[in-house]
Design a protein that fits this description.
12 helices; 28% strand; 26 strands; alpha+beta; six-stranded mixed sheet; 522 residues; single chain; Rieske Iron-sulfur Protein
């Protein structure tokens, strides 16, 4: 879409707002907190527990284990909290959409009740940690709402409320919202929470290092070796020797024949940080229908409310021009709250398991010293926290009531079997489509700030011309399993539609499962 069309369609937007759609700043969380920096690993080390991944699951586990007297090392490929944790909306809630009726239908009441209790205990862990560590992280108690706007989903919302009653969840069924959204009904989960995730984790990072924990940034984990001891091998050839390894890398960097790429799929979602004309009443909101619309607020350092409007989910590398998702959220916000300014815009990527329940526990039976936490399906503040709790219990030998609920080796015929075939047929379809598609652009036609698929020296290539006119050319074949990547206009990345790997304009890996960069094309 060229600038004339953009200006014609969005005349109501200020110059500053329009600029935000083209030059995405850091997420609000990262811009508002200065985190400590750590050096890369430059030697072999010995620890009790090696933790790969510096997000919510890895840092929570490191915090618990270091306080328990374990010698831990956290290694992060990039910067701490720069992945999904740094791009979250940071709702701290056990209300994960319309989910409890579904859990009862597929797994039974006991399973659903344990899922709820595990997430509720994760919320309490956050509250207790904030109190005990005296963390200033804007933690507030909020009611969470899932609302319906159609007859079909009104029935689903009412079924969900029945599930709440069955499971003993404190909640309500209502037919109006405090925000200007007409609804059929809404199910309310009482006394949930929200916070500033990076302010929270900055304090936990301090605690980890004070308790002797080591943290290394810019350190890429390449492999795990299991002999007499377990070693994480880095890209630069250094070894972290340990008794246990926790793989908390969003998508597991080490598969260990667990075939996680066949049992999960990636979705992207989009977030606007908006200063609204109408006063935001508080509370957490998400709709039951698609496309998703989610609302919460945070308070800036100036004391102003910044409303986080998110949603428009789609499978990574698939769907319409990604810039249109931001525009859809902007239209929704204008209608509901009115827009004064949009100072922040960012996107996030989350992984879904076949049955929508995270995989947390032993990687598989062949790897007793390796543990994994993944598949949080956009609810990482509770799922990531309970991951840290559960993995710490497994390392320490403590009994955990919820071990079986999140066991990564589970495979339930319904719905897992249906989802397994559906997901992998989708992957096959996109693999074939990518190989058959004809390139649509000529290099000379690609203007500054644009990208396209073209032919260079007889081979398919992805071309992006930056604002200075410099051309960046990459081979579009994903280095994971050979699917063809697609251009993400909204975030200026190359995204794989098969398993969700993402690469920057020069081909470097942003998110796995791919480990190697896209090949450069001369």
């Amino acid at each position: 879409m060229n600038e004339m069309i953009i200006e014609g369609a969005y005349k109501k937007m200020s110059d500053q707002q329009n600029n935000a759609f083209h030059h995405a700043p850091e997420p609000y969380w990262r811009e508002s907190v200065e985190l400590p920096a750590f050096s890369p690993l430059t030697d072999n080390i010995d620890v009790d527990v090696a933790i790969v991944g510096g997000g919510i699951a890895g840092l929570t586990a490191a915090y618990i284990l270091s306080k328990s007297g374990k010698k831990v090392a956290v290694i992060e490929a990039n910067k701490l909290l720069n992945g999904t944790t740094g791009h979250t909306t940071a709702k701290v809630t056990a209300q994960h959409g319309l989910f409890y009726d579904e859990l009862i239908q597929h797994f039974g009441e006991e399973f659903a009740r344990k899922y709820y209790k595990a997430n509720s205990e994760a919320i309490q862990f956050v509250r207790d940690t904030v109190k005990n560590e005296q963390v200033e992280c804007d933690l507030t108690t909020e009611d969470a709402h899932v609302y319906s706007q159609t007859e079909k989903y009104d029935k689903k919302v009412r079924k969900e409320y029945e599930a709440y009653q069955t499971l003993g969840i404190e909640g309500d069924l209502i037919n109006t919202l405090p925000v200007n959204i007409p609804i059929k009904s809404a199910v309310v989960m009482k006394n949930q929470a929200q916070f500033h995730p990076l302010k929270y984790f900055k304090k936990l990072i301090d605690s980890i290092t004070q308790n002797g924990g080591q943290i290394f940034e810019g350190t890429v984990a390449k492999d795990i070796k299991e002999n007499t001891s377990t070693s994480v091998v880095t890209k630069d050839g250094y070894h972290v020797h340990s008794q246990k390894v926790l793989v908390c890398t969003h998508f597991p960097f080490y598969d260990g024949m667990g075939f996680y790429f066949t049992r999960m799929y990636a979705e992207r979602s989009y977030i606007l940080g908006v200063k609204t004309k109408k006063e935001y009443p508080g509370g957490l909101y998400i709709n039951a229908e698609n496309p998703t619309r989610s609302l919460r607020y945070t308070t800036t350092k100036d004391g102003e409310k910044l409303v986080l409007v998110s949603g428009d989910n789609h499978k990574t590398g698939q769907g319409e021009d990604t810039l249109e998702h931001y525009r859809a959220l902007e239209e929704f916000t204008e209608e509901v709250l009115g827009i004064d300014e949009i100072p922040y815009r960012w996107s996030a990527q989350d992984l879904y398991t076949l049955d929508k329940v995270p995989y947390i526990g032993q990687l598989n039976k062949n790897h007793p010293s390796v543990f994994v936490a993944t598949g949080f399906k956009k609810w990482g503040m509770t799922s990531g926290t309970l991951s840290g709790q559960l993995l710490s219990d497994l390392v320490l030998g403590n009994h955990n009531l919820y071990k079986d609920v999140f066991d990564p080796s589970r495979f339930v015929a319904d719905p897992s079997l249906k989802k397994f075939f559906k997901h992998n047929l989708d992957v096959a379809g996109h693999f074939i489509k990518g190989k058959l598609e004809n390139p649509t652009r000529h290099l000379d036609d690609i203007q500054n700030g644009e990208a396209g698929i073209t032919i260079v020296n007889g081979q398919r290539a992805g071309a992006f011309r930056d604002e200075n006119g410099t051309l960046h050319l990459v081979d579009t074949t994903c280095t994971h399993l050979g699917c063809e990547v697609e251009w993400n206009h909204g975030d200026h990345t190359w995204d794989c539609p098969c398993h969700g790997s993402r690469f920057n304009i020069t081909g470097d890996v942003i998110e796995g499962p791919a480990k190697k960069p896209l090949k450069k094309v001369e």
